[in-house]
Each structure stands twice: as C-alpha cells, then as structure tokens.
Amino acid sequence: MKRRVVVTGVGMLTPVGMDTETTWEGLINGKSGIGPLTFFEDKDFPTQIAGEIKGFEAAQYIELKEIKKMDRFIHLAIAASQMAMDDAGLKTTPENADRVGVMVGAGIGGLPAIERYYKAYLEKGYRKISPFMIPMLIINEASGQISIRFGAKGPNSAVVTACATGTHCIGDSFKMIQRGDADAMIAGGTESCICPIGMGGFCAMKALSTRNDEPQRASRPFDAQRDGFVMGEGAGVVILEELEFAQKRGARIYAEVIGYGLSGDAYHLTTPAPNGEGAARCLSMAVKDAGISPMDMGYINAHGTSTKYNDEYETMAVKTVFGDHAYKIPMSSTKSMTGHLLGAAGGVEAVITILAMERGVLPPTINLENPDPECDLDYIPNKARKAAVDVAMSNSFGFGGTNASLIFKKHRK
User: Fold this and answer.
1) What residue spans define the domains of the chain?
2) Strands 184-191 and 100-105, bridge-based pairing
3) Active site residue 375
4) Could you tell me which CATH class the domain 261-410 is placed in?
5) How much is the pLDDT for 412?
C-alpha cells in the first residue's frame, strides 16, 4: 500500500509580497507585482518592466558572513524554506535527520553571479573571481544550503526543468516519501535572474511583453491583447510529510498530495506540442495517479504564461482530459499578478493552490478584458471567487517540452 503524503508547511515570496500572507492577500485582491525595471538600466531593451521583489534583505534570514557565498536565487530559497519550516514546526533531530530531505531547484540559477564575475575577469583577470563563485551559481546549492541550515541529511537533489522545475521538485519529493525513501521533504523552486543577460536572452527570443507604459496590465493570460510574458523572481517551498509521521508530532495539515504527472513533448525547443498533446498526457497521468474521476476536479492553477501558444494549448489540454467538465472547472493564472517566476513558478503556484483550497477562495486572472476566442474556459476573470474545493491541480510546462502537474486533496480529519 502506498504511503500517504501531506503538506504541513508553506512559504513563498514573490513580487506581490515578501512573505506568504502578504502575497496571498495581494493575490486575492488582484494586486499586480509588476513595475518598471530597477535592477539594472539599459534603455535599448525593448522590455523595461519586470516582477522584482523590492526591499528583500537576505540578512533577515542568513548570517552576514554567509550571504556573500550565495547568489540571490539561493537567498530567496532559504527565505521561503525558513518560512515553510517555521509554518510546519518541523525540527530535525539526531533520530530523524536522515529521513528529512531537500529538493529545491531553479530553472537558470546564478546567472547574475556569472555575469558579475565574468565582467571582473575581463577587467582585472581571474584573481578577481570570488572563490565562492561556483557554489554561488550552481543550482543544487539551493538544496545544499537548505540542508546545511536545517540539518536535513536525507535525500538531497535539485530538479532543473525550466519553468516546470518547482512542480517537478514537489512531485519527485512526493514520490520519494510515498515509496519510503524519506519521511519528510523540503521541496519547491526558486529563481532570480533579472539581469542583463537573463532579460536580454528572452528579449532576443521576443518572448517578453513590451507593454512598458502599463506594467501592471502587461501580464494578461488568455487575453487576446497579450504580447508576451513578464519576467519575475521569487521562491515557493512546501514541507511534505508522510501522514503518520506528521500526525505523530501533531502537525497541522494543509492538504494531501494525491497525484503527479510528467511528460515530454518531443517536439520543439520552446514551442509546446500542437493542441497541447504533451500537456494533456501529463494532466491525464496526474489524474490517473490520483485515482480520481475527471469530474472530481474543482480548481486548476494554470501555467498561463500570457503567451499565445501556451495559453491556447493548455486550454486544449484541459478540454482533452476533462471533457465537458472542463467548462465547469474554475481555472486561473496567478502569473497575471506575479509575472512568470520561471523555475520558482511551480513552487509558488503549488502554495497558492493549497491555500486556495484550504481557505475556500480562488485567486483571479487579472487583466482578462478581451478573452482570446480560443481560450473559452472559466479563468476567474479579474476578481477572486469564494468556492469550496476538495480537489485542485497545479500545472507547469517548460522549455524543452517538459511538463508537470500536481493534484492536491483537501485533508479531512
């Protein structure tokens, strides 16, 4: 019999808010975290907007002497993990340390560090490269630093699957606990690469919105006037525990993880497979893994990037898997408010999905004013909605045709 896995703690920081509750309140009130770009200045860039976390101080979470050993994506990961661990009240002890693991990934990692030290090398030679540069930038150091901080000696890894990273990290951690490799996992995603090379690369692809005069209206998933996604930064982490392990210590339980799906498009470097065929296989796998009927689905937090093919093909995938019931499922893209957090998106959106189900409030898709005719589902336009939901799904799809879906169920004592 498969072991049951529950969520006992959540933590996130996004352009909408520097902690879980501030972000949540902002989302259900339709607040956008998008604004003019301030992290660097280059007026030649066609995009001058981003979802930046303003005022974040790493020193609130990390000892001063350790801060310089990490790039910002690790700072954010530690902050979200601390929030989640505090929320869960989970402590590692000599007795349980090797049963508590970490899997927190990023899609890109320490690009700002690479940029900074390459410039230093060009100007003054290799001796100006920090000895901490490599551990600053490699993605698994997020998990490494978290494990050191909390003494978690169990499975330690990091998934790197572009915008599906956070969802894969949580899903893989769910399976680790389910099969008995760990009793608890710190899992999620993080990202911070709003820097010239990071934004420049997406600008070169013509992937970003250029609605510079209206930053808060630029991210508009499923809307006919969308013109690309808005780049953001953040981190989202959940604490997963085996049900009995959590119950024995009297943990608060937010939800149960019941399904996980993943698939590959085998189609194109950046464009999703036509008609959402790969995404549909992923969603279908998650539904089968959860052992539910498609009719049971009560809410979907969409990948919803505010790009033509993603929005249309995700809509098609939902229709393929859920049939006529698709039109009855409330579905929203919180990227309309946070921007696209890349490797952090799945972690943050898992937290949002869990809170929406637990609190009975579904966040909206803001800026949905003129729906794309190809996007004809219920995207909870512009205003949050109260709803009792027992089963919810969070979707993430990434470059390279990598897809991931998680299904959560409301926990009842």
Assistant:
1) 5-248, 261-410
2) parallel
3) no
4) alpha beta
5) 79
340 catalytic? Reply is yes
Catalytic residue among 75, 163, 169, 411: 163
1 pLDDT tier (thresholds 50, 70, 90): confident
Q: What percent of the chain has pLDDT over 90?
A: 99
Two domains, one topology: 5-248 and 261-410: yes
**Half-sphere exposure (Cβ direction) of 35: Cα atoms closer than 13 Å:** 10
Residue with tokens 């005069």: 213
How far is CA 73 from each of CA 53, 79, 167, 273, rounded to the nearest angstrom? Answer: 12, 10, 17, 30
Residue tagged active-site, from 168, 169, 193, 340: 340
Does 75 participate in catalysis according to the annotation?
Answer: no
Whether the Cβ atoms of residue 46 and residue 110 lie closer than 8 Å to each other: no
Give the pLDDT mean for 324-339. Answer: 98
What superfamily would CATH give domain 5-248? Thiolase/Chalcone synthase (3.40.47.10)
C-alpha 268/C-alpha 301 separation (Å) is 24
Tokens 């409301």, residue? 410
* Whole-angstrom distance, CA of residue 86 vs CA of residue 74: 18
Q: 191 Cβ partners below 8 Å, 6+ apart? A: 73, 76, 106, 107, 108, 165, 233, 234, 235, 341, 342, 343, 344, 345
Among residues 160, 218, 148, which one has the least CA distance to residue 191?
Answer: 160
Q: What pTM value is reported for the model?
A: 0.98
Residue 44 to residue 384: CA distance in whole angstroms = 37
Q: Which of 75, 168, 303, 411 is catalytic?
A: 303
